[in-house]
């Protein structure tokens, strides 16, 4: 299989799926809601459980955004398309670690969740042929860790706020990348 063929499939998938912007926009909403949850006067455990419930909105919101953006989740003519699902499913293997943090160190839950969220972006840099996913795969975990180390316990809402703002910036970068690809500048 020639590299040019794979590159063409990657670019085609990037364009047809809108660089995954539907999921990024859904993530902005979920992490915005998580910011609100972590600003409430509840125990860290309760906040963590509420955030887990909030993540149930991700797929329905992504579906809604895909309709608004007219992106395609299923491109059966592209052999790379199933990788997007596999890359997303891969983060489920981190859920036992997240459950452990929830049960033993609930105050660290939002940090662990932010690190998993950011880190799972890395393979999408290859899949969609864009550096932005790789950059934010490093920025989000590093930023979440730095905030955890430096913020007071009652200011940990800064972690989901940071992730939310990072996702907004990522969306802007991915949109610019998508426009570049639409214009044939790959």
UniProtKB/TrEMBL annotation:
InterPro entries: DUF7010 (IPR053824). Keywords: Membrane, Transmembrane, Transmembrane helix. Pfam families: DUF7010. The chain crosses the membrane at residues 21-39, 45-65, 85-103, 109-127, 132-151, 157-176. It comes from the Bacteria. This is Uncharacterized protein. It comes from Parapedobacter composti.
